[in-house]
Design goal:
five-stranded parallel sheet; elongated; 48% helix; 11 helices
């Protein structure tokens, strides 16, 4: 949630079984509200422009308009809405097309169930996720970073490290974090590299998801913490 307000999500998917599964996942997230579901591209554009949701979850293959065209139309007419493309196949060319059309993230449909909630929070806070694909270590067993519960994270991180974790989960850049803490961008980069090595994660997305999953970030207001 943002200030107690749930993240408003609009789902666009012509696959009945898949969208039923996604609805079930979203229903289990108390910080997310599923506003509506569209089945065609044309229906999606009209509904999203009218309701202006926080996030649109949509697949590439839709009845009627092509998914890339839908992204472009929504991005032009509802620029505040963050668009997330869901794909059954991990295709670099499609990912690039989606980004150029206005999508802020690209997620593999078959691998998002466990991480969808944390991903939505990160995207809503400004993060761009284009790495949750079949090759993403966080979303498959081989090479996946170990799970950390809250107590483990708290034992590994001091208060400064916890602030950095919250800022990363909020989608802040190294430069933004540095300005808030009155430290150089290079210092922040080095400190985050040290934390990622200690927690055995490979990138910022993994670090942020780990923090949200553990519950440590959920209890924080990152920008409030950064002021102290």
């Amino acid at each position: 949630m943002t200030n107690g307000t749930p993240i408003r999500v609009h789902l666009v998917d012509g696959d009945f079984l898949l969208h039923q599964g996604l609805r079930a996942v979203l229903a289990g997230l108390d910080y997310v509200r599923l506003d509506a579901v569209s089945r065609t591209g044309e229906e999606a554009v009209a509904a999203v422009v009218a309701s202006d949701p926080d996030i649109v979850l949509m697949e590439r293959k839709l009845p009627g308009m092509d998914g890339i065209a839908v992204i472009r139309s929504i991005a032009e007419q509802s620029p505040r809405t963050k668009i997330v493309m869901l794909c059954s196949e991990t295709d670099r060319e499609t990912m690039i097309q989606a980004y150029q059309a206005g999508a802020v993230s690209y997620l593999a449909k078959t691998q998002i169930t466990e991480d969808l909630g944390p991903a939505l929070r990160m995207i809503h806070r400004g993060a761009a996720i284009f790495s949750m694909t079949a090759a993403s270590p966080r979303l498959q067993s081989p090479g996946a970073p170990p799970r950390h519960d809250r107590l483990v994270l708290e034992s590994e991180l001091n208060s400064h490290g916890t602030k950095l974790l919250a800022a990363v989960a909020a989608g802040d850049t190294n430069a933004e974090i540095g300005r808030s803490l009155h430290l150089s961008e290079a210092t922040i980069k080095a400190q985050l590299a040290s934390i990622m090595k200690r927690l055995k994660v490979n990138n910022r997305v993994q670090l942020a998801v780990l923090g949200v999953r553990s519950g440590l970030v959920d209890t924080m207001e990152p920008h409030t913490l950064m002021k102290h």
